[in-house]
Request: fold
Amino acid sequence: MTNAVVTLNHGKKAFGDNEVLKDISLTVNKGDVLAVIGPSGGGKSTLLRCLALLETLNSGDLSYGDLVVCSNNAEGRAVYGDAATIATAKTRYGLVFQNFNLFPHYTVLQNVTDALICVQKMPKDEALARGRDLLAKMGLADKESMVPCDLSGGQQQRVAIARAMAMNPDVLYFDEPTSALDPELTREVLKVIRDLAAEHMTMVIVTHEMGFARDVADQIIFMDGGVIVEQGPASEVINNPRHDRTRAFLANYDRD
Amino acid sequence: MMGILMEGFGLTAQIFVITLVGSLPLGIVVALARMSRFKPLAWLAQLYISILRGTPLMLQLMAIMFGPYYLFGLNMGSDWKFWACAIGFILNYAAYFAEIYRSGIQSIPRGQYEAATVLGYSKAQTFTKIVLPQVIKRILPAMGNEIITLVKDTSLAFVLGIMEMFSAAKALAASEVSMIPYAIAALIYWVFCLVIEFILNRVEKKLDYYHD
Reply:
């Protein structure tokens, strides 16, 4: 086996007549940090949502490691695995949302540990210990008994990252993790993601923070119109884009 | 006089409690059926709600009371009166509660479901652990309204000849040629409602630890 954590081949997704993903292939290897950039409506979030099984592909092959989640049948339509396969796949990735989507009625610690206890059936003490470790790592050790609404947006997003990390995923997905945050709070969340990158956490990050993408990602994918327009080492794509569309897109951004 | 009224109140309170115990869970079932993607089930639930909200509770009580005899010739025995009343109230209130639950369930953002899905929660876990607790907080004021209404609706049991407090007051008013029993009954209804308001406020305060 290769050390591919997630592999998508020829992924296609349409909403009605609107083709949002047109033949997307990508492989994320263990330890890779992949940033996905591109204009709104270009298919970035849909790609992530297909990988996270929140949307179903119309066609394509998707695997987590050696676990085949879906593959094409003879007619070229994606057929997904059974419930057990999907449940196993869900233990392999975590997703951090733009709007955090924390559970408002749970404390910070419950947010991080509840799925461990009631989905993964981890003993409660062990789950709480892991939850506290992760919160400490996120700089939130003193916040465990607060509820999300008492935290700043940056703190909430760090709880969301801890919640995703708690499940010990092979790959962590970020869907514009800082788009709902002001610049100061953005910085604290990006720092946490940088720390994870330094620990070689495998990550796929949809982001509009170009400087961050260049610094943290190994590879960058530029998506527009449902296709991967350009893909390459991070600094190259950001500093010396080869395609006109990439150049035009990046011209709108301050690259720091 | 007070003895008879309080005896009546005992029955009023029983109808009230049995109705809630039955209709609060049944309402959830009806609401879920109403939102089912299996269309025939959704239509059936919609029809159920429409009929039970669209006809007088008094008629529903009578239909359940006398239906078994007139439709099937069944003799239901002397306890049937009370159970017909309980069933009528439960079915009727479940229809109202179902719509309140539905409004609450539909107000929960998609992101909550998505977060739960990604974390691997089953559909049942997502509903009972993530969605329902938030729904309860959101619908509490509307539920309070309906529950207070129920206190006074129990007086409709008089059509079945159940000696709940209103029937008792009526009988007393007739035998004593006085309006006082009505006044006392009104006062007792109101005090009962005050107690319920107090409890509802306590629950609301308890759920006030978060907002979203």
In short: Chain B touches chain A through 21 residues (CB under 8 Å). Chain B has a mean pLDDT of 93.
